[in-house]
Each structure stands twice: as C-alpha cells, then as structure tokens.
Design goal:
nucleotide-binding; alpha/beta; tRNA(Ile)-lysidine synthase activity; elongated; tRNA_Ile_lys_synt_N; 12 helices; 6-stranded mixed sheet; Rossmann fold; binds adenosine-5'-triphosphate; 2 domains
Length: 338
C-alpha cells in the first residue's frame, strides 16, 4: 500500500480531463443523504470528495475491510484519516471475504462487500456529536468508463450473450436503497487528474497491478492499444453495451410470455411449436428464474436438439444442465437437482 501525494497539475489537457468529473457530478442527482462506497483508491476518493463538495453534510462514507491482504489495515487507516480531515461520517465494516470452493475470489469479495454496504447503510451513521444522522437513501459506487470497457471485454472473452455484454448498469434499486454508478462515462485518468488538481492523495491497491488477473492485463495491455486504434472506444463500446442491455430486456420479456404459453413445468408439445432461438431463450429463462441454474451453450444446444426429435412416447430425455438434470416426464419437462 502506498499513499500518493500529488503535485499541482501541469497542463491544460489534464485540467480539461479533470472537468469531466465535475460534469458527471453536476449531472448526478441522487436522493440524499448519499453514502459512497469508499475503498481509499483513486476512483472512490474522487467520487467521495466530489460528492462531499457538492452536498456538504449530506454525504457519508462506507469502507469495507476485506481482511484478505496485509495492506487492508493501511487502507482502513487512510480512509479514517481522509474522512476525519474532511468531516465526512464514516462506517467501517469488517467482513470475512474468503471464497468457497468453486467460487472466484473476486466474486466472493464483491458479494461480501455488497452485503456489508447494505448493512452499513441500514444501520445508519453517527454525527460528530455522537447523535444519529438521517437515514441514507442512496449508495454510490465509483466504477468508471475504463472499468466498464474491461467488464465488456471480460464478458466477450467468456463468450457471453447480450445479458453479459450489457455490462454494468448506472442505476438500480436493492434493499430499499437507490444504487448509482455516476462515473461510468468518466475515464479513469480523469479521476486521477481531478485528485491531482486538488493535491489530494489516495492509496494504490497492490493487487491492481498484479498481471495474474485478466482484468489487470486488459487494463495494462489492451486499453493502451485500443486508445491508439479506436480513440472513441469508451463511448462506442458503452453504446454497444446499452444496445445489448435493451436486447436483453426484450429477450426477458419474450421469455416471460413464452413461459406463460408453454406452462410451468413446460409442456413438450408447446415447446416444439417454438422456433429454435425462442425455444433456447425460454428454456434458459425457465432454468435460471425458476431453478436458479444456468445451462452452458453446449447443454442448451443438446436440450433444444433433443426436444426437436422427441416425437415418440418412449423417447427419453435426460440431460445434465447447470447444477442438475432436465428429464422428460410424460408430456412435460422436469428439472431436478442431483
Ligand atoms: N473495500 C472497499 N470498501 C468500500 N467500497 C469499496 C471497496 N472496494 C471497492 N469498493 C467500491 O466498489 C467499487 C468497485 O470496486 P473495484 O474493486 O472494482 O474498484 P477499486 O479498484 O477498489 O476502485 P477504487 O479506485 O475506488 O479503489 C469501487 O469504486 C468502490 O466504490
């Protein structure tokens, strides 16, 4: 962990870049009070301090101590110092973010962090005099345009469908709170320029440069090349993601209406009446929304093919799908968890 003191800015392009942050925060209009998820890194430092400058007294910070790396105590100390210096109420939550077998470490940390953020926001904050403050209504995360591109490229590298390519949403609701990512159109460098312009420091998480993580390799190796070949890649990729988000919404709506038509559990005869793409779409939706399992592309293709040739009474269907099996039971398809 390293605290990075910044000197003043040196050129006009850095100043123009920093203005992108001010513009994003000027356009941000969350219900107040607002809590910012504050890791101590550059992105959430800029978000927290820009929001605090815009709505003094209405902004709080939540820091999650993951307990995963030795540097975590230093991150917490840094966050405490920043919040004390600026008079921002802070809550620190400690979580045990170790991952279970089969779960990715990043996923475990992310899920634990979301739970902790919700708990902290619901628990409430104390003011400088120890009295309780008004309950938080919104929560903001600091992911920015580069994070969005990395998420999209990661999804492409896994062969994701339109739902995966939709990348991260800017706004959603969860646990009675409004959640926002107000910096999704701001390049990462602009956040560092904004902090630099004000002489503000942040901590650098050493795992962010660990080239063992695909995300870090995308950031260090791919983004500089994209910058040269497609200078507008942040906004054009974001536009593609927005198209995918719309397409994913339409596919969900279509699957819902098809699921009503084929019944639950689905009737073979009605499934067979659907064109192949719609059949795959409704099956994926049924398995995910009703049984909480996601079929692989190969499993879904096998299931679609089997349904297509299931024309005799004795035809057996029994296919491993996600974490269970789909089987034929008379006129219907059934799913069970082994
Ligand atoms: N330990 C933490 N405590 C509170 N919020 C966090 C923490 N780690 C991440 N976040 C929030 O989740 C967002 C996404 O996390 P991610 O790990 O992708 O970014 P990061 O590299 O930690 O960003 P930053 O530059 O703000 O540190 C962060 O921008 C921040 O708002």
């Amino acid at each position: 962990m390293q605290a990075l003191p910044r000197a003043g800015l040196t050129n006009a392009s850095e100043a123009a870049s920093a203005q992108l942050v001010d513009r994003a925060i000027a356009a941000f209009d969350p219900p107040l009070p607002l809590a910012v998820a504050f890791s101590g890194g550059a992105d959430s430092s800029a978000l927290l301090l820009a929001c605090h400058a815009r709505w003094p007294g209405q902004v709080r910070a939540i820091h999650v101590h993951h307990g995963l790396q030795a540097a975590a105590d230093g991150f917490q100390r840094h966050c405490e110092q920043v919040c004390a210096r600026h008079g921002i109420p802070l809550q620190v939550c400690e979580i045990d973010a170790r991952h279970e077998t089969g779960q990715s470490p990043e996923d475990a940390a992310r899920q634990g962090r979301y739970q902790a953020l919700i708990q902290a926001a619901q628990q409430g904050f104390s003011g400088a005099d120890g009295g309780g403050l008004e309950a938080v209504r919104s929560l903001a995360l600091a992911q920015h345009a580069d994070d969005q591109v990395e998420t999209l490229l990661l999804a492409l590298s896994r062969g994701a469908g339109v739902a995966g390519l939709a990348a991260m949403p800017e706004h959603w609701q969860r646990a009675g709170l409004e959640w926002f990512r107000p910096l999704l159109r701001v390049p990462g460098q602009a956040l560092r320029d904004w902090l630099g312009q004000r002489g503000l420091d942040w901590v650098e998480d050493p795992t962010n440069t660990d080239q063992g993580y695909t995300r870090n390799r995308i950031r260090a190796q791919l983004l500089p090349v994209l910058e040269q070949v497609f200078p507008q890649f942040r906004s054009t990729f974001a536009r593609s993601s927005a198209h995918c988000a719309q397409a994913a919404e339409l596919l969900d709506e279509l699957a819902l209406s098809d699921l009503q038509a084929v019944g639950m559990p689905p009737r073979l005869k009605d499934l067979q009446a659907l064109p192949q793409a719609r059949l795959g779409n409704v099956l994926r939706h049924w398995l995910r929304s009703v049984h909480g399992t996601t079929p692989s592309t190969a499993q879904l293709a096998q299931l679609v093919a089997q349904i297509g040739v299931c024309t005799t009474r004795g035809h057996r269907i029994h296919i491993k799908v996600g974490c269970g099996f789909v089987q034929r039971r008379g006129a219907i398809l059934d799913w069970y968890n082994s």
